Amino acid sequence: MPLPQDPALDSTRAFFAEGYDWVGNRCRELGSDAFRARIMLQSVVCMAGEEAARRFYDGRSFTRTGAMPQITLRQLQDKGSVQALDGAAHRHRKQLFLTLLARDPAEAVADAFERRWQAALPDWRTGDPIVMHDAFGQLLFGAACDWLGVDLDTASLDRRTHEMLAMVDGAGTVGPRAWKGLALRRRAEHWARDVVQAAREGTLQLAPDAPLARLAAFRDLDGELLDLRTAGVELLNIVRPTVAVARFLSFAVLALHARPGAAAFVADRDPARLQAFAQEVRRFYPFFPVIGGRVRAPFAFRDHAFAIGDWVLLGLHATNHDPRLWEEPETFRPERFLNREPGAFVLVPQGGGDHASDHRCPGEWITLALLRRIVRRTTACRRRTCRSRTTASPRCRAANCA
Predict the structure, then answer these.
(1) Element of type H or E holding 312
(2) Which of 131, 246, 287, 327 has the largest CB neighbor count within 10 A?
(3) Angle (CA) 214 171 124, round 5°
(4) What number is the average pLDDT over the span 223-237?
(5) What is the CATH number of domain 48-396?
(6) Domain boundaries, given as residue ranges, for the chain
């Protein structure tokens, strides 16, 4: 039986208009977790759900090469990065990120973030109301640099944070926002290459086991140092995603303010409840709507034969809101994670599958650690009523946050 077809001649406009809901909406309308459509005048198969994610992240069927518009690729990953690799080259490069980012290092980044939060409080208490997302972005960029071993003055901190936020904001857009993000990406790459070069030449003093020193000294499968451009790209692929967590942190604060019972759920700041809350923020709130792949080995799914080169979009948000996987998926319920360890193909806000062999983001541990910290910090606010304004960009005077 052939896959159902989205009746629109081209779904590009609907995709942008409906945004994160588009894949899930079409799955419900067509009664299938896989369907055919046309986006940007190209044929595409869209999929959602656990089985679809399992196939997408099986390590054999898909490549990321050619799966994203070039302007999006260049803003987020760029050519030559770990996400653009497949097979043994991908697994070898991925080990660098796993050793740098997993578990204990995640807590070190969270510690650096908390120190910068504490240092910023005096200015927050006496200054104008702040935009939380932007403030979190600056704290996160500073924390990432502290952890890596990079010193920045205030002007550089402001400039580099602006670049990182513009890359994330421009990804997936067209027109001026995309052009701005790409231009600032190029400026940031010059900075990243200079940092790596300084680490290699010794003009930037680092401990041998410092994360930046290990990145600068990393050798690929051929035994050669990464060329300077690629090493700079991979440095940005640590820093930029860390700054992007500002969105999740803002959503966490929004949930505490706007979702009934959310603050009470974590009032005692029990570690298990903080972790459950962090997981529900990642599941409930959108980050990336879809991830793209190109078929590299023929296979069949839902009686549809996929050929080499076919374009496929996996609905990340649709899978995280799949009613087959989640009871009341449109309700914010952190308690769902108290006695549940989500499967590798069920909770997929930052990819699915195995961290070591698949294209699953190794920054998940950092995201969870930071979310636990922000919830614990925010619920420690000594004021009974916070003056936060929960809009798309929450604002908070943070006058007495401890």
Answers:
(1) strand 311-315
(2) 246
(3) 75
(4) 91
(5) 1.10.630.10
(6) 48-396
